[in-house]
Design a protein that fits this description.
This protein is α+β, with helices and mostly antiparallel strands and 991 residues long. It contains 17 helices and 49 strands. The longest helix has 30 residues.
Length: 991
Amino acid sequence: MAATQQQLAVALLFFLLHGGVLSFPLGQGTKQASTCGYESCHPTKPDMLNVHLVPHTHDDVGWLKTVDQYYYGDRNDIQHAGVQYILDSVVDQLLKNPDRRFIYVETSFFYRWWKQQSASMQQTVKQLVNEGRLEFVNGGWCMSDEATTHYSAVIDQMTIGLRFLNDTFGPCGRPRVAWHIDPFGHAREHASMFAQMGYDGFFFGRLDYQDRFRRMSAKEQELLWRASDSLTPPMADLFTGILPNGYNPPEGFCWDQSCSDAPIRDDPDLEDYNVDDVVTRFLSIASSQSMVYKTNHIIMTMGSDFQYENANLWYKNLDKLIHYVNAQQAKGIKVNVLYSTPSCYLQELHRANSSWALKTDDFFPYADDAHDFWTGYFTSRPALKRYERVSNSNLQTCNQLEVLGGAVSRSGPFGNGDSQTLKKAMAVAQHHDAVSGTEKQHVANDYARRLANGWQHCQVLVSNSLAALSGSSAERVYCDNLNISVCPLTESSKKFSVNVYNPLARPVTWPVRLPVNGSVYEVSDANGKAVDCQVVPVSAATQDVRRNRGFAVNELLFQVQAPPLGFTTYFVSLLQDGPPPASTKLQTPTTIQNKFLQVTFDPDTGLLSGLSNLETKQSIKLTQNFYWYNASDGNNSDSNQPSGAYIFRPNTSTPFIISKTAKTETIQTDVVQEVRQWFSPWVSQVVRLYSESRALELEWTVGPLPIDDDLGKEVITRFDTSIETDEYFYTDSNGREVLQRRKDFRPTWNLRQSEPIAGNYYPINSRAFIKDDMDQLTVVTDRSQGGGSIQNGSLEIMLHRRLLYDDVRGVAEPLNETSDIFPEGLVVRGRLLLSLERPPNAADAHRPLAQEVVLQPLLTFSDGDLHPNTKLEFSGLQAALPPAVHLLTLTQWDKDLVLLRLEHQFQSWESKVNAQPVTINLQKLFSTLEVLGMSELNLSANQWKDEMKRFHWTPESGERPLQKTYEDPSAWEVTLRPMEIRTFLLRVSLR
């Protein structure tokens, strides 16, 4: 491309990225643009204690009420809260005094409000933003949870919110500070992502009570978080501040209509005049707070949940507070109070030119008292957690096919499709009271309904795109209940086709299980070649779970091979009706085996007894069983804290075994070998080994959990092995980097362990493992769950919870899930995948395995024969990406613009083979897209990468690292280093 053409391409990208505003440095082209951000901060006084008052509201995107109820102020009998009135009132009050400031966080609420405003009001708000009087912090669609969210979904929701702010307000709408004041513990991967999104700092409110006490005494409540052990510092370094009072005002200084604190009464002629008392109390609080922070600047959050609905109450009193405290300066009091924002406070800390304590671990688990560990929500609402993960996979497929299919995907033979509905539903689901499982039941139902509605919109888009790519407009059927063997088409049709779309950028082999009623079928691939298939009976557990939603008596099993970022087609024909062939054996098995793995069972108990990797010639003892903890009802002598949606509090440290033996039946075919185990009427499992798999599948079904004994139950599965773990185990952080854990230990303080089970639980988002020098057993999960290693050589994972008491953290309802289908209690089904490898090579197996579980193939079905001219196979890539590289994002940005994220999915220490830099040529990436221009963005796609400038901070432990710059080999080639994600805006055309 000639230099002139390249410049034009970059200019076009620049223009479209920023909503058509070419004068990007000036935002919306107004005079006031340069006064936003750090330049809008009020001056401080270097010889005084500067108290930064931050007016704010914390608006949950669903919790006790649904998103809609919170926005409109509906159902105030549950909680008085109406976000639209907050924004109305705040804007009105900001206009009355230019000194006032306000920050806003949840873009999903602001987006709704903004669309309802008149043009003149929108212009007024733009001016407030351009002058720094109204400032956005965090800026994602919501304030995401940090324990139970997957990194890909977090990046997506941040991108949606930040793009709206960018398009609407230009640079003045770009947040400088990440703000997670309410999540219940903090993940290292979140800090890494925020750093790569360009944030200068990060503030939160919750950390373990022991950690806080130590940090207060050491003045380490502000620190430098080094959030990656693979990315070169300071790429993932993030300044982190812990707020002094959660996110609430100091005691006695809450002036919202929801508060009962006395207003400032400043008429000296009235007998209830209280200015002197207010000033004295405030100065005392400020002095005490300054003793546990490092600089002469402190921050106070003046607001809380859904406050400022009548902003006049707050601002009238804050104006007076600032006036009367600062008047004391004339008497020699060295305190200066000012309206501020988190970014203005951060700027002053940066100007202090100090060094800061360095942290390299995370902030899990979180406890607010000795017996109050917030580790239950790692597993709460396991069905919703799985549905959110499936929805993420569906969304990525929808995004990809919108790009690969072109404009016809949005408006084609099946109607008008859209991906935005599911994008926004998924973004809302990342909220810290959504996928976390800490909302009321009717709110959880609303999150699920939004996801289902979004997927319906995406199905139209997917059908249109597949029709364009295959040349067939035959009707496509989606079977979303295959996990319980329900699909009306396959149950009744004598001939149908299966389209398998693979959203991964490498080929996959995937087992397909279809509910059928015939006994013999013929399956052929896109080339007409016969495929090995087997018919087996549907398990009794599945028949129980279906509850008359499907009537198949058998399942058809075969394995498919799908090309990268593409689809293939399989054809199924019924050859014979009747019962399945006699492949079921009721005796207890001793061994199942394929060419990769051997699995042994104890013939006396029916339980797993060993696992061997035949390729690496390693074997371990491995037993697995199911147990339940008796959830505390809060009547313990040492604490009245019960288990609930947030908190895990077992009554004893020893779980109750559900059964010491399992009833079994065995199915052995050329495609799969299964051992079906029954432990009780409410716990069963299928141990499954496919012929081409290097992983052992455990499909568990748990529920309904019985409560006729008036005991809440928290069900775990536990793996006990011969691996010598020495009290160490490992969990992932948001599905990405892996962190080392140790029983009864915290890296940054001397732990006084008061809850030996709950205090050793950590979030497991996609995998956990135990290892010694010779063996590593990795367990890959299909959703976020909690778990730990309580005994050496052991790993336990919590699967399901049913509780009879509320844990007094605000939700005011026990976690006792039922439904119309399961009125006696929810039944949950899931999968665990086990991999046994040598530790140096284990990641080569579990990294791609976890990605397959997160981004699983999408199956669509067509009845009868396809048109003879139908294209049966397609790949959107010219070649599969190398094993180290994952295609994280491919989504339409604007008409001719596509957003692409590529990531290196290995940590620097994980693999001799794959933990090396990899170079990709973007012009040679796609088979159907011609890349005409490209420009690199930051992780959240709201800044050009070369314009992203962040504050640098100096750790106490050494010199401030300088950002290393790497040059790519050529204009179209990009190099990825371990754990690096690179984001590109591409101008493309269909070939």
